[in-house]
Structure formats: structure tokens, C-alpha cells
């Protein structure tokens, strides 16, 4: 009996030790598996920490462009289809170049999505593109307002938002961009007054036409050194300020088509000696044509059509050496001096219809001209603008003219309702 008991006890001990061994074995396997997973996770995490993006600016650009792609809800041409992954320099419409402050560092320097027909809006994250010099979004369907975070785009030199659906007041954020030289806001839905500070900026060109800007053109013109200013098809009213003379050293194109300006054309316009294009058509300008315009020796296109100007078409204007197109139709001019009667002999394309010119075809009726002549001569000192920019008689006879009523063929290239220029 003692022997059987000892044997049974020994068997029990062996089985216990065997099960204990199996338990330890499986526990070790589970432990190894868990440790392996932990090491893998730590490796991934440590690898990310040890290897941050080699170019933080391109990484920030990646974040910005991904945020932008997220708020694009229509891209019929699939322009942004390859906006995937961190290699932003390979994205369509994205252009990289050496950084201005570190030529060894590549950055996103330009974005050109002109004519892409993209719909969406501009996210605040675009401020991450702090090296951006060019932003061209002409002819898309972007809407909403311009983010105030654009103040971070301190290197931005050209901003073209034309032919979109942006709204709101004049985007004052652009006034904080110290490097900006080219501003194109035309063909949008901006509204309200222009900030006077706009004309304190050293812009080379700005296009504001075909929006809903109102009030008058600010009277502080002068600090800007613009060569091109296009205000056409807005509702400014008031007069063209005499301070326009401050642009004499730079201004080459001035277009004020259908802006509801009134009063007389100031003689100071004749001091803009670099002017090549002057178009003040479809307004409420009265009074005589200043003789000072005879000093615009570089002038090529002069359009005074569809106003209420009177008096003489001076010979000095018709003799301008570079004049190729002169439109003064739909006014009340009653006399032409010298060569003005025969502009064809100078190969000048002209339009003199609907005036009160004797012996010329297609003039106003005798009654219209007689009624006009019976009125007292216009005294430009009486109709000049006050400090607020509005003439005393500014509202008299004011007629709103829709842009569609203006013949495109008669507009200078800069004013025609075409898409804004694209740049390489």
C-alpha cells in the first residue's frame, strides 16, 4: 500500500510540473508577441520623431494645399487630381523655386490655376504658403471672402483673383502686403467704397473694373506709382480728382468707363505726359475738352464718347503724333478746329457721331443742339467736386449705363470684358 501511495504521489507531481511548464511556455509566447508589437509601434513612432520633414516649408505647403483641396467642390478638368502626397512641387499648377532667403531651400513660389473652372473657396490655411510670390486664379468659380490670414503672404508680388465670385467689401488685407505690385480684382462682386490707403501703396497696376464699388474715387491719389489703373463699370460717382496729376511720372493707362463720374475733365489730365490710353466714356462729364490734352504726346487712344461735353474739339488734340483712335461721339461738340475736320488724312480711326457738328453726317437733331446751346455755358468752377468728391451738379442727368450696353470693340484692350492676362 505504501508503495502504491508513493507512486500515485509521484505521478501527480510529474503532471503538475508538466502543466506548469506548458503554462509558462504559452505565457512566454504571448509576452514575446506583445513585446514585438510594442517594439514595432515604438519603432514607427521613433522613426517619425527621428526623421521629421527635411523641408518644413514644403511640409507646411502640403498642409495648406490639402486644406484647399478639401474645400474644392468642383474640379471639372481634374486639375487637382494629382494633389496627393507630400511632393507638392509635382502638383499641377504649383511651381517651386529656391527660397529668397535661402537659395538652397526649395519652396512653393507660385500658383497658377488660371482658366481651371474650379469651384470652392480660399481656406485660412493658405497663409502657410509664406514664400508665395504669384497667385493667379483668373477665370474660376471661387467664392466667399479673402481670408485675413493672407497677411502672412509677405512675399506676394502678383495677386490675380479676376473672373471669380468673390464678395464683400474691398479686401483690405491686400493693403498689408508690402511686396504686392500687381492687383487684379476685376469681374467679381466686391462692393462698397475704395479705401483711401489703396492709393498710398506702391502698386504698378491695379484692375478694379466690373465690381460693385461705390462712393467716389478717393482724393488722395498720388503716392501710388501705378502705370495702369482700370476702374471701369463701377458706381463711383463724383469727379475725377485733380490729384490725378500726381501720377504724371508713371501712369500710362487710365480707364474710367461707366463709373458715373461727373463734373468737368480736369486740366491736370493733360499733365500725364506718359499716358497712352485715356477712356472716360459712358459717364456724365460736362464742359469743354481741356486744351492741356494737346501735351499728351504719347497718347494713342482717346475715348470721350457718351458724355455731355460741349464746345470745340481742339486742333492740338487732333495733331497728337501717336494718336490712332479718337472717339468723341454722343456729346454736344459744336466745332472742330483745323485737322480735326479731316482725321482720315492722318489715318486716325475716329467716331464723331451724335454731336452738333455742322456739315457732318449722323449728328444730333437741330432741336437737340439748339436746346443745348440755349443753356448757359458750363462753369467748371461751379460743377467742380467738393471735398467729398461729388460735384454740385453731380446728380443732374445721371444715367446708369449697364456694361452690356458698351460696345466691346470700342474699348481699349485693358478694359474689354475679357479674361485677365495670364503670366508665365
UniProtKB/TrEMBL annotation:
It comes from Trifolium subterraneum (Subterranean clover). Keywords: Cell wall, Glycoprotein, Hydroxylation, Leucine-rich repeat, Repeat, Secreted, Signal. This is Cell wall hydroxyproline-rich glycoprotein. It is found in: Secreted, Cell wall. The keyword Metal-binding does not apply. Residues 1-31 form the signal peptide. InterPro entries: Leu-rich_rpt (IPR001611), LRR_dom_sf (IPR032675), LRR_extensin-like_regulator (IPR051582).
Amino acid at each position: 500500500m505504501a508503495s502504491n501511495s508513493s507512486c500515485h504521489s509521484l505521478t501527480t507531481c510529474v503532471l503538475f510540473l508538466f502543466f506548469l511548464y506548458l503554462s509558462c511556455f504559452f505565457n512566454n509566447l504571448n509576452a514575446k508577441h506583445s513585446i514585438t508589437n510594442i517594439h514595432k509601434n515604438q519603432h514607427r513612432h521613433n522613426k517619425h520623431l527621428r526623421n521629421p520633414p527635411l523641408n518644413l516649408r514644403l511640409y507646411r505647403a502640403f498642409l495648406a494645399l490639402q486644406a484647399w483641396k478639401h474645400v474644392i467642390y468642383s474640379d471639372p478638368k481634374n486639375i487637382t487630381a494629382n494633389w496627393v502626397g507630400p511632393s507638392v512641387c509635382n502638383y499641377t499648377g504649383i511651381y517651386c523655386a529656391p527660397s529668397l532667403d535661402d537659395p538652397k531651400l526649395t519652396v512653393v513660389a507660385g500658383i497658377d490655376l488660371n482658366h481651371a473652372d474650379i469651384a470652392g473657396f480660399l481656406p485660412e490655411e493658405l497663409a502657410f504658403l509664406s514664400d508665395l510670390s504669384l497667385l493667379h486664379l483668373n477665370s474660376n468659380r471661387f467664392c466667399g471672402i479673402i481670408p485675413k490670414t493672407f497677411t502672412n503672404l509677405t512675399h506676394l508680388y502678383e495677386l490675380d483673383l479676376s473672373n471669380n465670385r468673390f464678395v464683400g467689401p474691398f479686401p483690405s488685407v491686400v493693403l498689408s502686403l508690402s511686396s504686392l505690385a500687381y492687383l487684379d480684382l476685376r469681374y467679381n462682386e466686391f462692393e462698397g467704397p475704395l479705401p483711401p490707403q489703396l492709393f498710398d501703396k506702391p502698386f504698378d497696376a491695379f484692375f478694379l473694373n466690373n465690381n460693385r464699388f461705390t462712393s467716389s474715387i478717393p482724393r488722395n491719389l498720388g503716392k501710388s506709382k501705378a502705370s495702369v489703373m482700370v476702374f471701369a463699370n463701377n458706381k463711383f460717382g463724383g469727379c475725377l480728382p485733380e490729384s490725378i496729376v500726381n501720377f504724371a511720372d508713371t501712369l500710362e493707362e487710365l480707364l474710367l468707363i461707366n463709373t458715373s463720374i461727373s463734373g468737368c475733365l480736369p486740366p491736370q489730365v493733360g499733365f500725364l505726359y506718359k499716358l497712352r490710353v485715356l477712356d472716360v466714356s459712358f459717364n456724365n462729364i460736362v464742359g469743354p475738352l481741356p486744351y492741356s490734352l494737346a501735351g499728351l504726346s504719347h497718347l494713342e487712344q482717346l475715348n470721350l464718347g457718351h458724355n455731355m461735353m460741349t464746345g470745340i474739339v481742339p486742333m492740338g488734340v487732333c495733331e497728337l503724333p501717336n494718336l490712332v483712335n479718337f472717339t468723341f461721339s454722343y456729346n454736344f461738340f459744336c466745332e472742330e478746329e483745323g485737322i480735326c475736320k479731316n482725321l482720315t488724312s492722318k489715318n486716325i480711326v475716329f467716331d464723331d457721331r451724335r454731336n452738333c457738328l455742322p456739315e457732318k453726317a449722323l449728328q444730333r437733331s437741330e432741336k437737340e443742339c439748339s436746346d443745348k446751346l440755349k443753356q448757359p455755358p458750363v462753369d467748371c468752377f461751379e460743377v467742380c467736386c467738393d471735398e467729398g468728391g461729388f460735384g454740385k451738379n453731380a446728380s443732374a442727368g445721371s444715367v446708369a449705363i449697364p456694361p452690356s450696353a458698351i460696345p466691346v470693340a470700342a474699348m481699349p484692350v485693358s478694359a474689354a470684358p475679357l479674361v485677365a492676362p495670364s503670366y508665365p
